[in-house]
Amino acid sequence: MTDEVAAVDTNELESRQESSRQLGGKKISRPKLRRYDSLELESGKCSGHHRRGSKELSWSVILHLAFQSIGVVYGDIGTSPLYVYDSVFTSGIRNNEDILGALSLIFYTITLIPLTKYIFIVLRANDNGEGGTFALYSLICRYAKVGLIPSQQAEDSDVSNFKLEFPSKRLERATRLKSMLERSQFAKCFLLFATVLGTSMVIGDGVLTPCISVLSAVSGLKHATEAMTQGKIVCISIAIFICLFMVQRFGTDKVGYTFAPIICIWFSSIGIIGIYNYFKYDPAVIKAINPKYIVDYFRRNKKEAWISLGGVVLAITGTEALFADLGHFTVRSVQISMCSLTYPALLCAYGGQAAFLRKHNDAIGDTFYKSLPGSVYWPMFAVAVMAAIIASQAMISGTFSIIQQSLALGCFPRVKIVHTSTKYEGQVYIPEVNYLLMLACVAVTLAFRDSSKIGNAYGIAVVFVMTLTSGFLVLIMLMIWKTNIFLIILYMLTIGTVELTYLSSVLYKFDQGGYLPLAFAAVLMFIMFVWNDVHRRKYYYELDHKISPDKLKEIAAENKFSRLPGLALFYSELVHGIPPIFKHYVANVPALHSILIFVSIKSLPISKVPAEERFLFRRVEPKELNVFRCVARYGYTDVHNDQEPFERMLVESLQVFIKDDYFLSKSMTNEDNDGETDYRQNDHEEQIRQEEMEKEIDEIDKASCAGIVHLIGETEVIAGKGAGIMKKIMIDYAFNFLKRNLRQSENIFDIPRKRMLKVGMTYEL
């Protein structure tokens, strides 16, 4: 077998072999089997649809996840009643009817965006159970070749694409759009830019959410005692931040079960108090369900009403967490918790506060605390502080999820991913990111010191991410779901128009703190752009300088390797061919282990790859060298951990490959004999092949028992001669700074240091 090994579908061969046995070994005429590349054959076995929901979960598990989601997902949107009315009426209430207009805006905003858009539409756009901006992007990449990330190669087409559909007008429309995107380099770059921008904004949310939520809750102390100054409130808030980030290492599973009861009490309390205030002060606020009051509100206040939308949008902060945190739960569990508890409790809370304000126009500052019945002030203060702490959890968990996705797709520097739950997939913790978020929260709180200023910044981050999500969703509707065009237009005219209106309003407050999330996004986008760009340049350098099979034969003939007992794993990012660093290695160390495997860790644009379909192998000629190429495929939510022993699984998969390789070689030899085979005359040849196969498997067992050595290609990249100043800054300074200060490959893959050898080489890009 050569490097371009001939292979066929195993099921087809077994079926034909069974037919031959049934015919008693008679000569039968069959069409020749098609020839495939071995990696292409095996990659076709992975459908990319393996997800948590592939097995139907029992209702008990779904309800457990729904309960957990209350503590993780809804803290942010649940604590919005602490500050929304204060942010809407920043100049006080001028007309009592304005309260109905504001309540009507809040009611329809919550109904349209979190409930209709996210719960019933966006959650359906999950990528095998994963949510977030990168999940949408990778979903689009599965249907159109729009990715700029080098892990997307031609042999992944069978892995990434869904089944073909029968032609229809909608399919033709989707095909035209797909072709247009694939031909346009600008479209590819813009999609990646929008993805990185959305990701950066969500990470910015992870910083701003603790600041505004905790500050707003702790500010209630000012109404209890005059001795409580703003400086003391800031110090208490910072102490709470530190404690919150310190418990993240225990994982979403434990944090969710700890926080869920508190948030349940919070939602129940604000709902009950809202109903109490509704009947006590003004039941007429139910009229706000009529959108006429929105029109009247804008007629009376004009520009001021438009500016106040920046406060109304704070009622839906944390909505993106519904989608970003989906990997921690399931679609059904999030839908149940939203519809049964969160949505009705929020409507009651805002309705009750509106009824209170109708009778107390002067109570617009800290409306939440002033509207509380006196007997429940301190209990509600305690629950509010705890709910505000939990509100931060939603975006922190979402930040961990999207950074895991962007890391796997080559758009974020290497960081350690810790899988915190053996019971539920997708629950992760990232130590470096956790501490950076904590430092950023402390810095923002010390700089702004007031929740109203942070609210201006918060609104921009929230609406930007929602608008980008809508853009991706329209592409998915057109190209993947093939939705009726009239429904797409209806979506754009309703939800799209509402989001763009809110975006125009929050941008008005750019100079009042709105610049903060954009500054966060700019820094994060620069880091992600530098890493992704140099990552791709490095990959294509290796691709251009890879060692061909003929070149390997020359190297083997020139160096006359001595062989060492053991099995060596030579790591490289290159999927096609042998990396150039191998030539550098053998020139300095003219010895090879008895078995050598070139391993490429490759991320696919799907969420998970089943462990049994993890490895793809190819034999490298000459056969006597015992050299193989291996591609270890991971989805962007797969985590390298002890539950999946890498070395043992790789060796076992290699042995299975050798068995299949000999079987396929025998079958192809039979097929090449003019389509006519007499199986009774091949007993001797089959016995020889069987002995060769057993000998090779035995050699692999002996090599693995002698010891497995990990050879890490540690390459240094520098800008090539004649490179421009910007390219030198990006490669020589920015990228290498990130690389030096972040985790190395052996830490990411938990490679044992006692059996690791680094091979260094410099690439001029």
Describe the structure.
The chain is of the alpha/beta class. It folds into two domains: 79-147 and 175-533, Amino acid/polyamine transporter I, CATH 1.20.1740.10; 546-669 and 683-764, no CATH class. It is built from 28 helices and eight strands. The protein has helices spanning 10-22, 38-43, 59-72, 75-78, 84-88, 97-120, 133-143, 157-160, 169-183, 185-218, 230-246, 252-281, 292-301, 303-312, 319-324, 331-359, 367-370, 377-408, 431-448, 451-481, 485-507, 515-544, 549-559, 581-588, 646-671, 683-706, 725-741, 745-748, and strands spanning 418-419, 428-429, 562-572, 591-603, 615-620, 627-634, 708-718, 756-764. The strands form two sheets. Strands 5-6-4-3-7-8 form a six-stranded mixed sheet, with helices on both faces. The longest helix has 34 residues, at 185-218. The protein starts with 9 loop residues before the first helix and ends with a strand.
Structural class: alpha/beta
Q: What is the number of beta strands?
A: 8
Give me the CATH superfamily of the largest domain.
Answer: Amino acid/polyamine transporter I
Query: What is the CATH topology classification name of the largest domain?
Result: Amino acid/polyamine transporter I
CATH architecture of the largest domain: Up-down Bundle
Beta-strand residue percentage: 5-15%
Distance linking N and C termini: 35 Å
- Please tally the helical runs, counting DSSP H or I stretches of 4 or more residues: 28
Q: What profile does the largest beta sheet have?
A: 6 strands, mixed
In round numbers, the mean pLDDT is 77
What Rg, in angstroms, do the CA atoms define?
30 Å
Overall number of domains: 2
Fraction of residues in helices? 55-70%
Detail the poorly predicted runs: 1-54, 157-167
CATH class (first level) name of the largest domain: Mainly Alpha
Name the quaternary structure. single chain
Shape: elongated
Strands of the largest sheet, in order across it? 5-6-4-3-7-8
